Amino acid sequence: MDRRQAVLDQIHAAFDGVQRGDGTSLRESQVIDDHGSHEERQAARALDTDTRWQDVPDDLIAKHYSAFSFVDLAGHVYYAPAYMSWLVRTGYDTPSNSTESAVYAFDPRGRYDGQHQLRAPNEMFTPAQCEAIATYLSYVADVLDGNSCCSDARQYLEDYWWRFLPNATDPFADLPLRAELAGLDASAPPQQADIDGWLIRLSPGKAKRSRCINALRQGTLPLDDLLARCRQAYDAAGLPLAVRVTPWSQPADLDERLAAKGWGAFDAADVMVLNRLLPVPPLVELQALDAARYAATVGALRGSSDTAIAAHAERIANAPVTYQGFVLNDADGALLACGQMVVAGDLVGLYDIASAVQRQGHGQRLCQSLLALAYQHGARQAYLQVGSDNEVAKRLYARMGFSFAYRYHYRSPEQELL
C-alpha cells in the first residue's frame, strides 16, 4: 500500500461514525460569514443533507474555503476528515483556497467551544484522531508541500502535532540546553575563571548569573575542597558565595548535597522558549541604545546602584555575544519600556525587559517587536527567563507563544543574596 492510501485509510478509520448532529453545516457557515438571518441559516442548513462526512461533495469543500472560521465545535470535528481526505486526493491541483483550510483546521492553538472556552486540539479529537491528523500533516508537509511554503503543515506538525506520531521525537528537544548555553555566553562578565570544571563569575553587578558559580562539569576535587577554593575567590571579590543550580549541574546530585549542608535556595527562575519565530514586521518603532545608555536606563527603572549600572554596562559591552538594547518611547519621547536581545545564530535571547508604565501592554509590544527584529537578523527560535513567582509576566509570555523549558535556582550558605 502506498503512503497516500495509507493516510486515507487512517483518516477513515479514526473518524468513522463521526456525526454532525446539531453542529453547523457547510452551507450554513457561509450564511454566518455573510451575516445572514436565522431563517437564511436554517434554509442553508436544510440543503446539507449528508449524514456522513464521507458523503460531503468535493465541489462544496472546494467552494467553502472559510468554513472552519464559522462552524461550531461539532461541525469542525465532522468536516475535518472530509477536508483532509479531499486534500490528500486532489493535492494542490486546484484553484480552491480550501487547500489552506484543510491545514488551518488543525491550528495548534485550538478553538473556542460554545461556552467561549478555548479547547486544545487534543480536547477536540480522540487519541486515534489526533494520530491520524498528525500522520496527515506529515504527509502534506513531506509529499504535497515539497519545497513550497504555501501551507503551515510543517509548522503545525513541529509546534504541536508531532507528539501524536508513533515513536515521536520532539524536533525541539535540544532547545532548552541550547538556551542554557546561549544564556551562559550572554551573561559572561570579564571577571570569570574556571576552577576544576566549575565556571566562577565575579562581577560586582546586579545580575546574579554574572556573580555566581555555574557547575558545568564534574571535576576531580572533593565537593568540600572545591567549595572552599570557590569561597576564597568570592571572599576576595567581596561577593556572597552562590551556586546556580540547573538540570545540567554537575555533580548530578549537587542540589541535594548543598541542601544537606544547610544551604538555602533563592530566586528561582523559569526559562521559557519559543519554538518558532514568524516573519512579521515590528509592531512598534524602537530606538537603539548603546551599552552605557541602556544600562543607565534599565538601572534607573530598577533602582540599581551606580556600581551595579557600571558593571552592567561593562558586561554587555564586553560580552562574547552582541547585545542590542532598545527603548520604546511615546510620542513625546517619554520612556514606556526597554529590553535587550542577543542573537546567536538562529537563537535569540530577550533580556532585561522592563516597563516604565505598567499594565498597558507596552512590554508585550516591545517583546514582539524585538522578536520581529531578531527574525530579520536570522533568529528562528527564542528564549527568555522570568522569576518563577512572576505569574503576570509568565502569562504574558505564554500568550506570545513561549512555553516552560526548565527552572533554575541559587544555593548559598548566606542568609540572603543581595
What does this structure look like?
The chain has 418 residues and is α+β, with helices and mostly antiparallel strands. It has 16 helices and 13 strands. Strands 3-4-5-6-13-7-12-11-10-9-8 form an eleven-stranded mixed β-sheet, sandwiched between helices. α1 runs antiparallel to α5 and α5 crosses α6. It is elongated, with a radius of gyration of 27 Å. The protein starts with a helix and ends in a 6-residue tail after the last strand.
What's a quick, concise take on this entry?
InterPro entries: Acyl_CoA_acyltransferase, DUF6714, GNAT_dom, Rv0428c-like_C. This protein has helices spanning 3-15, 26-33, 38-47, 58-63, 73-90, 98-104, 121-124, 127-145, 153-159, 175-186, 223-237, 254-260, 291-302, 306-318, 362-376, 391-399, and strands at 111-112, 118-119, 192-195, 198-201, 213-215, 243-245, 264-274, 287-289, 323-329, 335-344, 347-355, 381-387, 403-412.
Keywords:
single chain, 418 residues, alpha+beta, eleven-stranded mixed sheet, two-stranded antiparallel sheet, 42% helix
